[in-house]
Write a structure and sequence with these properties.
Blueprint lengths: L12 H14 L12 H8 L3 H13 L3 E4 L3 E4 L8 H22 L3 H12 L6 H4 L3
Antiparallel strand pairs: 1-2
Helix pairs in contact: 1-3, 2-3
Length: 134
């Protein structure tokens, strides 16, 4: 997996990297239990302060997206559903409402938004649990 940092972006470097990791996991470009580069390796590759990489890894570990195995490195964590289905649904509803509000302000129709969501959903890696399959 190759990460890229846009130095001209107004988005902080740690947020750029965290979003790339989240997106890579969601789309299946990073698999569960896959090892990520060490803090040192990634900081050298991206020419970024190691503390920035460590901050990203720590933040994603707190969110349950990554886990550190002492002596082995940082790995993509398997999804955990610590929140109840209802709580997860409420969080998703808030996110979707924000997206729909933005779509209305940008002048999209409900049909255009539905088509775009259906198209984009095909690019993501859905777990058997999330699709209703076992």
């Amino acid at each position: 997996m190759e990460f890229r940092i846009e130095l001209s972006s107004r988005i902080p470097i740690y947020r750029q990297l965290a979003e790339q990791i989240r997106g890579a996991i969601a789309t299946g470009r990073l698999a569960w239990d896959e090892r990520l580069p060490s803090v040192r390796e990634l900081s050298r590759t991206l020419v970024v302060n190691p503390n920035t990489i460590a901050r990203v890894y720590l933040e994603l570990e707190r969110e349950g997206i990554l886990n550190t195995r002492p002596g082995l490195g940082v790995f993509v964590a398997r999804p955990r559903h610590e929140l109840t289905k209802r709580a997860r649904r409420e969080r998703l509803v808030q996110t979707v409402d924000g997206l729909l509000t933005e779509a209305v302000h940008l002048g999209f129709t409900a049909e255009e938004v539905s088509e775009l969501l259906a198209e984009r959903a095909t690019r993501f890696h859905w777990t058997p649990e999330s699709t209703g399959l076992k």
